[in-house]
Specification:
Layout lengths: L18 H11 L7 H5 L8 H11 L6 E2 H8 L3 H13 L3 E7 L5 E7 L4 H35 L1
Antiparallel strand pairs: 1-3, 2-3
Length: about 150
């Protein structure tokens, strides 16, 4: 699964005391919330959108719960494919943990929650992925520079 994260110049949101406002700005900055998403889906505003509610209402505010896809679809009043689309974005960033949940019929389904039940701790995985990606960019830049120098010598 590919890892995508927008990195933009920003200031810390430590001056914002409203959880939802801080999350809206943060999730928009990192590219999790698409611009114009609410207008395409009928949500009145971004805070009513599925990805926002999934992250804030389900994963942050109810960290103690392991969520099945079906439960998330019902909670968010949307389809399972829509839930999977947004869960996969969070999985790609490595923010989610999953576990097998035993059902009444002794079968198992995958359940999701925020890794370590803690955004700050799970964000360490995102930072590690960014570090690896930046190292790879550095190697590519160094290689291109070497190719330019070789081309110049010809």
């Amino acid at each position: 699964m590919s890892f995508e994260l927008s990195v933009v110049t920003n200031t810390p949101l430590s001056g914002i005391d409203d959880l939802e406002e801080a999350c809206e700005i943060f999730l928009s900055n990192i590219g999790y919330l698409s611009k114009g998403y609410e207008s395409r889906t009928g949500a009145e505003n971004v805070r009513d959108s599925v990805p926002f509610r999934l992250f804030v209402d389900c994963l942050l505010k109810r960290r103690d719960k392991v969520w099945l896809i079906e439960e998330l679809a019902e909670e968010l009043d949307t389809s399972k494919p829509t839930v999977y689309r947004h869960i996969n974005k969070l999985k790609a960033m490595d923010l989610l943990d999953f576990t097998q949940v035993e059902m009444d019929n002794h079968s198992y389904k995958k359940g999701y929650r925020l890794r370590y039940d803690n955004l700050a701790k799970s964000w360490n995985f995102v930072e590690a992925h960014v570090g690896v990606a930046m190292e790879n960019y550095r190697k590519t830049v160094d290689h291109i520079q070497k190719l330019v120098e070789l081309e110049r010598r010809k």
